[in-house]
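User: For my dataset I need records formatted as: sequence, then C-alpha coordinates, nothing else. Please produce one.
Assistant:
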Amino acid sequence: MALTTISNGRIEATIDSAGAQLMSLKLDGKEYLWQRDEKYWPRCAPVLFPIVGNLRNDRADSAQGEVRFGRHGLARNYEHEVIEAADDSVTYELVSNDDTRAKFPFDFKLNMTYRVVGDALEQEFMVTNTGDVTLPFAVGGHPAFNVPAPGCEDEDFADYKLVFSKKWTYASPTISTETGLLDYGNRFTLVDNEDELALSHRLFDVDTLTFEDVPGRTVSLVGPSGHGMRVDFPGFDFLGVWSAPDAPFVALEPWRGTATRTDEDDTFENKQGMDFLEPGEQAVYAFRMLPL
Protein backbone atom coordinates (compact mmCIF):
# COMPACT_ATOMS: atom_id res chain seq x y z
CA MET A 1 0.00 0.00 0.00
CA ALA A 2 1.45 3.34 -1.09
CA LEU A 3 -0.04 6.75 -1.83
CA THR A 4 0.89 8.83 -4.87
CA THR A 5 -0.17 12.46 -5.33
CA ILE A 6 -0.39 14.17 -8.71
CA SER A 7 -1.12 17.85 -9.32
CA ASN A 8 -0.99 20.75 -11.75
CA GLY A 9 -1.19 23.43 -9.06
CA ARG A 10 -4.99 23.68 -8.98
CA ILE A 11 -6.18 20.08 -9.22
CA GLU A 12 -4.57 17.62 -6.81
CA ALA A 13 -5.36 13.90 -6.66
CA THR A 14 -4.05 11.16 -4.38
CA ILE A 15 -4.28 7.51 -5.38
CA ASP A 16 -3.62 4.37 -3.32
CA SER A 17 -1.78 1.40 -4.84
CA ALA A 18 -4.17 -0.81 -2.84
CA GLY A 19 -6.92 -1.26 -5.42
CA ALA A 20 -5.56 1.68 -7.48
CA GLN A 21 -8.27 3.64 -5.67
CA LEU A 22 -8.62 7.41 -5.89
CA MET A 23 -8.38 8.69 -2.31
CA SER A 24 -8.55 12.46 -2.67
CA LEU A 25 -9.58 14.99 -5.32
CA LYS A 26 -9.02 18.63 -4.48
CA LEU A 27 -9.54 21.88 -6.34
CA ASP A 28 -7.61 24.80 -4.87
CA GLY A 29 -7.10 22.79 -1.70
CA LYS A 30 -10.80 21.95 -1.20
CA GLU A 31 -11.72 18.25 -0.92
CA TYR A 32 -14.45 17.02 -3.25
CA LEU A 33 -14.03 13.27 -2.83
CA TRP A 34 -15.78 11.34 -0.05
CA GLN A 35 -13.19 10.60 2.65
CA ARG A 36 -14.48 7.25 3.93
CA ASP A 37 -16.34 6.56 7.14
CA GLU A 38 -17.15 3.04 8.39
CA LYS A 39 -20.49 4.39 9.62
CA TYR A 40 -21.64 4.86 6.02
CA TRP A 41 -19.16 3.33 3.55
CA PRO A 42 -15.46 2.50 4.04
CA ARG A 43 -14.42 3.10 0.42
CA CYS A 44 -14.38 6.21 -1.73
CA ALA A 45 -13.73 5.28 -5.38
CA PRO A 46 -13.08 1.57 -6.03
CA VAL A 47 -12.11 0.25 -9.46
CA LEU A 48 -14.71 -2.15 -10.89
CA PHE A 49 -13.28 -5.09 -12.91
CA PRO A 50 -14.04 -7.59 -14.43
CA ILE A 51 -17.69 -7.05 -13.51
CA VAL A 52 -19.94 -4.21 -12.45
CA GLY A 53 -22.41 -5.01 -9.69
CA ASN A 54 -23.37 -8.50 -8.57
CA LEU A 55 -23.41 -11.98 -9.99
CA ARG A 56 -26.32 -14.17 -8.95
CA ASN A 57 -25.15 -15.86 -5.74
CA ASP A 58 -21.66 -14.41 -6.41
CA ARG A 59 -20.91 -16.94 -9.17
CA ALA A 60 -21.32 -17.62 -12.88
CA ASP A 61 -20.27 -20.14 -15.50
CA SER A 62 -17.89 -19.21 -18.30
CA ALA A 63 -16.21 -20.87 -21.27
CA GLN A 64 -13.13 -21.34 -19.07
CA GLY A 65 -14.87 -22.58 -15.93
CA GLU A 66 -16.52 -21.13 -12.84
CA VAL A 67 -16.26 -17.41 -12.06
CA ARG A 68 -16.66 -16.58 -8.39
CA PHE A 69 -16.40 -13.23 -6.63
CA GLY A 70 -18.50 -10.64 -4.83
CA ARG A 71 -19.87 -7.29 -5.92
CA HIS A 72 -17.80 -5.36 -8.45
CA GLY A 73 -15.23 -8.07 -9.08
CA LEU A 74 -11.67 -8.43 -7.89
CA ALA A 75 -9.47 -5.48 -8.94
CA ARG A 76 -10.37 -3.40 -5.89
CA ASN A 77 -9.02 -6.12 -3.58
CA TYR A 78 -5.45 -6.35 -4.95
CA GLU A 79 -2.28 -4.30 -4.76
CA HIS A 80 -1.55 -2.54 -8.05
CA GLU A 81 2.02 -1.79 -9.11
CA VAL A 82 3.03 1.74 -10.08
CA ILE A 83 4.71 1.40 -13.48
CA GLU A 84 4.92 5.07 -14.49
CA ALA A 85 4.65 8.32 -12.58
CA ALA A 86 4.99 12.02 -13.37
CA ASP A 87 3.96 15.24 -11.64
CA ASP A 88 0.52 15.18 -13.26
CA SER A 89 -0.12 11.47 -13.95
CA VAL A 90 0.39 7.97 -12.57
CA THR A 91 -0.21 4.54 -14.10
CA TYR A 92 -0.87 1.32 -12.17
CA GLU A 93 -0.81 -2.28 -13.32
CA LEU A 94 -2.57 -5.44 -12.16
CA VAL A 95 -1.64 -8.69 -13.93
CA SER A 96 -3.54 -11.95 -13.60
CA ASN A 97 -1.93 -14.51 -11.32
CA ASP A 98 -2.73 -17.84 -9.70
CA ASP A 99 -4.94 -16.14 -7.11
CA THR A 100 -6.99 -14.13 -9.62
CA ARG A 101 -7.30 -17.15 -11.93
CA ALA A 102 -8.82 -19.16 -9.08
CA LYS A 103 -11.70 -16.62 -9.08
CA PHE A 104 -11.67 -15.53 -12.72
CA PRO A 105 -10.11 -18.15 -15.03
CA PHE A 106 -8.77 -15.71 -17.63
CA ASP A 107 -5.46 -13.93 -18.19
CA PHE A 108 -5.44 -10.15 -18.35
CA LYS A 109 -3.51 -6.98 -17.68
CA LEU A 110 -5.35 -3.99 -16.21
CA ASN A 111 -3.67 -0.60 -16.33
CA MET A 112 -5.25 2.28 -14.43
CA THR A 113 -4.01 5.77 -15.31
CA TYR A 114 -4.96 8.94 -13.47
CA ARG A 115 -4.00 12.23 -15.12
CA VAL A 116 -4.74 15.88 -14.51
CA VAL A 117 -6.19 17.53 -17.61
CA GLY A 118 -6.84 21.26 -17.12
CA ASP A 119 -9.26 21.56 -14.20
CA ALA A 120 -10.33 17.92 -14.43
CA LEU A 121 -9.03 14.52 -13.38
CA GLU A 122 -9.17 11.75 -15.96
CA GLN A 123 -9.43 8.11 -14.92
CA GLU A 124 -8.44 5.68 -17.69
CA PHE A 125 -8.87 1.92 -17.88
CA MET A 126 -6.69 -0.07 -20.29
CA VAL A 127 -7.49 -3.78 -20.46
CA THR A 128 -5.23 -6.19 -22.36
CA ASN A 129 -5.99 -9.84 -23.11
CA THR A 130 -2.73 -11.61 -22.25
CA GLY A 131 -4.25 -15.08 -22.63
CA ASP A 132 -5.00 -17.37 -25.56
CA VAL A 133 -8.82 -17.34 -25.33
CA THR A 134 -11.46 -14.60 -25.65
CA LEU A 135 -11.54 -12.37 -22.55
CA PRO A 136 -15.02 -11.29 -21.35
CA PHE A 137 -15.10 -8.36 -18.93
CA ALA A 138 -16.68 -5.09 -17.86
CA VAL A 139 -15.13 -2.03 -16.22
CA GLY A 140 -16.55 0.79 -14.17
CA GLY A 141 -15.71 3.69 -11.89
CA HIS A 142 -17.25 4.35 -8.49
CA PRO A 143 -16.12 7.80 -7.24
CA ALA A 144 -18.24 9.26 -4.44
CA PHE A 145 -18.39 13.02 -3.86
CA ASN A 146 -19.03 15.07 -0.77
CA VAL A 147 -22.55 16.46 -0.37
CA PRO A 148 -22.62 19.28 0.46
CA ALA A 149 -19.67 20.37 -1.69
CA PRO A 150 -16.67 21.91 0.09
CA GLY A 151 -17.31 25.49 1.16
CA CYS A 152 -21.07 24.93 1.03
CA GLU A 153 -21.61 23.36 4.43
CA ASP A 154 -24.77 25.43 4.99
CA GLU A 155 -26.48 23.48 2.18
CA ASP A 156 -28.43 20.26 2.78
CA PHE A 157 -28.38 16.97 0.89
CA ALA A 158 -31.93 17.64 -0.31
CA ASP A 159 -30.76 20.92 -1.90
CA TYR A 160 -28.74 18.95 -4.45
CA LYS A 161 -29.77 17.70 -7.87
CA LEU A 162 -28.47 15.89 -10.90
CA VAL A 163 -28.39 18.08 -14.00
CA PHE A 164 -28.40 16.53 -17.48
CA SER A 165 -27.40 18.09 -20.79
CA LYS A 166 -30.99 18.14 -22.09
CA LYS A 167 -34.53 17.11 -21.16
CA TRP A 168 -35.23 13.39 -21.39
CA THR A 169 -37.43 10.67 -19.99
CA TYR A 170 -36.09 7.63 -18.22
CA ALA A 171 -37.32 4.87 -15.89
CA SER A 172 -34.70 3.02 -13.87
CA PRO A 173 -34.79 -0.73 -13.24
CA THR A 174 -34.68 -1.63 -9.57
CA ILE A 175 -31.89 -3.49 -7.79
CA SER A 176 -32.90 -6.11 -5.26
CA THR A 177 -31.49 -5.28 -1.83
CA GLU A 178 -31.37 -9.03 -1.13
CA THR A 179 -29.76 -10.39 -4.31
CA GLY A 180 -28.20 -7.30 -5.89
CA LEU A 181 -29.72 -8.30 -9.25
CA LEU A 182 -31.12 -5.81 -11.73
CA ASP A 183 -34.87 -6.10 -12.34
CA TYR A 184 -36.04 -4.56 -15.62
CA GLY A 185 -39.54 -5.86 -14.94
CA ASN A 186 -39.87 -3.41 -12.05
CA ARG A 187 -38.97 0.09 -13.17
CA PHE A 188 -39.73 3.55 -11.80
CA THR A 189 -39.60 6.92 -13.52
CA LEU A 190 -36.74 9.21 -12.54
CA VAL A 191 -37.09 11.97 -15.14
CA ASP A 192 -40.10 12.75 -17.33
CA ASN A 193 -39.17 15.27 -20.02
CA GLU A 194 -36.86 16.94 -17.50
CA ASP A 195 -33.18 17.85 -17.36
CA GLU A 196 -32.92 17.76 -13.55
CA LEU A 197 -33.48 15.17 -10.83
CA ALA A 198 -33.86 16.43 -7.26
CA LEU A 199 -32.02 14.26 -4.75
CA SER A 200 -33.14 12.98 -1.39
CA HIS A 201 -31.93 10.22 0.90
CA ARG A 202 -35.19 8.34 0.37
CA LEU A 203 -34.50 8.20 -3.38
CA PHE A 204 -31.79 5.62 -2.57
CA ASP A 205 -34.05 3.31 -0.59
CA VAL A 206 -34.03 1.24 -3.79
CA ASP A 207 -30.22 1.02 -3.66
CA THR A 208 -28.49 2.23 -6.84
CA LEU A 209 -30.22 4.24 -9.57
CA THR A 210 -29.25 2.69 -12.91
CA PHE A 211 -29.26 5.07 -15.88
CA GLU A 212 -28.76 3.99 -19.48
CA ASP A 213 -27.89 6.17 -22.50
CA VAL A 214 -27.57 9.40 -20.51
CA PRO A 215 -27.77 12.36 -22.94
CA GLY A 216 -24.31 13.49 -23.97
CA ARG A 217 -22.79 10.99 -21.50
CA THR A 218 -22.41 13.77 -18.95
CA VAL A 219 -24.02 14.64 -15.61
CA SER A 220 -23.51 17.29 -12.95
CA LEU A 221 -24.13 16.98 -9.21
CA VAL A 222 -24.77 20.51 -7.93
CA GLY A 223 -26.27 22.42 -5.04
CA PRO A 224 -27.87 25.89 -4.87
CA SER A 225 -24.46 27.54 -5.12
CA GLY A 226 -23.68 25.73 -8.36
CA HIS A 227 -20.75 23.94 -6.73
CA GLY A 228 -20.36 20.18 -6.96
CA MET A 229 -19.01 17.78 -9.57
CA ARG A 230 -19.41 17.15 -13.29
CA VAL A 231 -18.58 13.74 -14.71
CA ASP A 232 -18.10 13.25 -18.46
CA PHE A 233 -18.14 9.59 -19.48
CA PRO A 234 -18.02 9.09 -23.28
CA GLY A 235 -18.00 5.41 -24.16
CA PHE A 236 -19.84 4.34 -21.00
CA ASP A 237 -23.43 3.32 -21.74
CA PHE A 238 -24.52 3.10 -18.10
CA LEU A 239 -24.34 5.38 -15.08
CA GLY A 240 -24.95 4.26 -11.53
CA VAL A 241 -25.92 6.87 -8.94
CA TRP A 242 -25.79 5.77 -5.32
CA SER A 243 -25.63 6.91 -1.71
CA ALA A 244 -25.60 4.93 1.52
CA PRO A 245 -28.50 5.49 3.97
CA ASP A 246 -28.39 9.11 5.21
CA ALA A 247 -24.76 9.44 4.06
CA PRO A 248 -23.25 12.83 3.09
CA PHE A 249 -22.07 11.73 -0.36
CA VAL A 250 -23.31 10.72 -3.80
CA ALA A 251 -21.43 8.29 -6.04
CA LEU A 252 -21.49 8.92 -9.79
CA GLU A 253 -20.44 5.65 -11.42
CA PRO A 254 -19.69 5.32 -15.15
CA TRP A 255 -20.21 1.68 -16.12
CA ARG A 256 -19.53 -0.43 -19.20
CA GLY A 257 -21.83 -3.18 -17.88
CA THR A 258 -24.32 -3.84 -15.09
CA ALA A 259 -25.20 -6.31 -12.38
CA THR A 260 -26.71 -9.57 -13.57
CA ARG A 261 -30.29 -9.03 -14.66
CA THR A 262 -33.06 -11.12 -13.14
CA ASP A 263 -33.98 -12.27 -16.67
CA GLU A 264 -30.40 -13.33 -17.54
CA ASP A 265 -28.93 -16.78 -17.08
CA ASP A 266 -25.73 -17.48 -15.13
CA THR A 267 -23.38 -17.52 -18.11
CA PHE A 268 -20.72 -14.86 -17.55
CA GLU A 269 -20.42 -14.04 -21.24
CA ASN A 270 -24.16 -13.29 -21.40
CA LYS A 271 -24.11 -10.46 -18.87
CA GLN A 272 -25.50 -7.14 -20.07
CA GLY A 273 -22.89 -4.79 -21.51
CA MET A 274 -20.05 -7.31 -21.52
CA ASP A 275 -16.96 -6.46 -23.59
CA PHE A 276 -14.80 -9.06 -25.33
CA LEU A 277 -11.13 -8.99 -26.32
CA GLU A 278 -9.38 -11.52 -28.49
CA PRO A 279 -5.86 -12.67 -27.51
CA GLY A 280 -3.41 -9.78 -27.71
CA GLU A 281 -6.12 -7.13 -28.09
CA GLN A 282 -6.60 -4.21 -25.71
CA ALA A 283 -9.32 -1.68 -25.03
CA VAL A 284 -9.20 1.79 -23.47
CA TYR A 285 -12.02 3.64 -21.69
CA ALA A 286 -11.83 6.90 -19.74
CA PHE A 287 -14.00 9.37 -17.87
CA ARG A 288 -13.31 12.81 -16.40
CA MET A 289 -14.23 14.37 -13.07
CA LEU A 290 -14.49 18.16 -13.06
CA PRO A 291 -14.97 19.91 -9.68
CA LEU A 292 -17.37 22.86 -9.97
